[in-house]
């Protein structure tokens, strides 16, 4: 073996790191290239879904000489939770781990023969990640800054003893709950929280004290904002679960004989839900990232018992106002809603469905891409922490817009303009790229709405099986 091939060191021994080093070897076709074989580590086993999730990775590669060209090979890409999501994915890289705005995309990333592969020649240390990390240190800094401006509640502790913080701000009568990062690998969700809180609280001490929308929204609402629902999974570099393997977005209600939430398995949800019961909820937003779909979108509580003309109109008006305030939001592409109330009833343990029905209120899941955002493409950066922050800041206009209707018990939807109407989303985004007319859309991969890719769960014949298509 050429000595070059021993000069690459792989490590993930830091907050949010996830990788397992397998080996290095000279490339079969080009001996100037060193193949670096790595695999993603799995989350703790998820009892309800009977699957060990894996997809998020973040690692450090240190190369000691200047002539080594590295070909990184993620060897188990085809057995991750969402293998079809690797197509069009680009790996993020930076030499500065904790500067979120330093990360760019490796444009030669490709998914071939079941492996995610990318090439890079670099000396010294380079970091690679599925999405730029949001560290626990950064989380604590955010909480400290918020605390200098407003009340920060601790609703309870995670299984490993981290606080579940909730930032309370505003004096309005309407109660808005916004939670982030139930799925810890979806780090863009906490960047979103950072943007939202920075605007609401003027955390950067710029001239946004003159922001008329902020002034207005704080008079309309009292916000309860949880920046990170799953700090344990975040520190561990998990994709989807807490320290006990619980997928928190399936822990909002008991399902069959699987009791949830519980203090033993999902205290993060248990405490948040208990606090919601004490305060009440008029509008709910749950912020996530989606591995496959290269768009931002909202998903609602369609087909659940509470859904009807009122919630449909509120959902439509919120989305339309959001799209007007930030062109990275769009309404056409998203999870197709369930086809029947029976199908939706299988998913009352999902936060949006549970909260929307428990409080008879507008409830939404917001998804951001891991990939580039195809509404405003930027391949060099892809969807980024900066754009996530902007999207978080831009949601306030939508809150202002729907405020008069949230608890309006008249048939207000008959008065709303046509541009506010509910748009039923399709996930057939590849056809949109080919500019086919809307009526020609074909559903390629059936998925349920409030979360992604339930289809894999069905294959594992888990407890949480969906209905057959
Ligand atoms: Zn998620």
Automatic annotation (TrEMBL):
One of its GO terms (molecular function) is zinc ion binding. It comes from the Eukaryota. One of its GO terms (biological process) is proteolysis. Gene3D superfamilies: 2.60.40.3120, Zn peptidases (3.40.630.10). Its cofactor is Zn(2+). Residues 126-406 form the Peptidase M14 domain. PANTHER family: CYTOSOLIC CARBOXYPEPTIDASE, CYTOSOLIC CARBOXYPEPTIDASE 1. This is Peptidase M14 domain-containing protein.
């Amino acid at each position: 073996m050429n000595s070059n091939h021993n000069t690459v060191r792989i490590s993930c021994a830091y907050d949010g790191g996830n990788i397992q080093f397998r080996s290095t070897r000279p490339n079969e076709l080009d001996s100037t290239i060193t193949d670096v074989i790595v695999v993603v580590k799995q989350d703790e086993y998820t009892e309800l879904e009977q699957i060990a999730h894996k997809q998020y990775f973040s690692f450090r590669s240190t190369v000691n000489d200047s002539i080594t060209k590295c070909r990184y090979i993620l060897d188990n890409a085809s057995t991750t939770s969402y293998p079809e999501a690797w197509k069009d994915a680009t790996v993020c890289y930076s030499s500065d781990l904790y500067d979120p705005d330093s990360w760019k995309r490796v444009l030669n990333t490709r998914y071939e023969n079941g492996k995610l592969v990318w090439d890079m020649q670099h000396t010294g240390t380079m970091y690679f990640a599925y999405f730029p990390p949001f560290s626990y240190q950064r989380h604590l800094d955010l909480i400290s800054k918020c605390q200098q401006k407003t009340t920060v509640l601790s609703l309870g502790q995670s299984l490993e003893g981290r606080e579940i913080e909730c930032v309370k701000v505003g004096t309005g009568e309407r109660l808005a709950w916004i939670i982030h990062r139930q799925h810890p690998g979806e780090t863009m969700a906490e960047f979103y929280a950072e943007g939202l809180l920075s605007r609401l609280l003027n955390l950067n001490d710029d001239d946004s004290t003159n922001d008329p929308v902020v002034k207005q929204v704080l008079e309309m609402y009292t916000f309860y904002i949880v920046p990170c629902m799953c700090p344990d999974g975040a520190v561990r570099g998990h994709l989807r679960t807490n320290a006990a393997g619980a997928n928190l977005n399936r822990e909002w209600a008991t399902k069959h004989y699987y009791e949830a939430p519980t203090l033993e398995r999902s205290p993060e949800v248990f405490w948040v839900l208990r606090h919601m019961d004490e305060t009440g909820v008029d509008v709910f937003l749950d912020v996530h990232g989606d591995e496959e779909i290269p768009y931002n979108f909202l998903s609602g509580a369609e087909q659940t018992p509470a859904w009807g003309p009122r919630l449909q109109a509120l959902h439509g008006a919120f989305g339309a106002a959001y799209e007007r305030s930030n062109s990275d939001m769009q309404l056409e592409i998203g999870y197709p809603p369930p086809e029947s109330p029976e199908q939706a009833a299988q998913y009352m343990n999902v936060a949006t469905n549970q909260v929307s029905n428990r409080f008879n209120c507008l409830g939404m899941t917001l998804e951001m891409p891991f990939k580039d955002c195809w509404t405003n493409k930027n391949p060099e950066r892809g969807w980024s922490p900066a754009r996530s922050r902007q999207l978080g800041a831009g949601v306030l206009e939508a809150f202002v817009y729907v405020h008069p209707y949230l608890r309006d018990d008249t048939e207000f939807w008959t008065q709303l303009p046509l541009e506010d109407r509910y748009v039923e989303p399709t996930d057939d985004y590849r056809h949109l790229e080919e500019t086919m007319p809307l009526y020609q859309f074909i559903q390629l991969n059936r998925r349920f709405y409030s979360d992604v890719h339930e289809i894999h769960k069905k294959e594992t014949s888990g407890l949480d099986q969906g209905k057959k298509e």
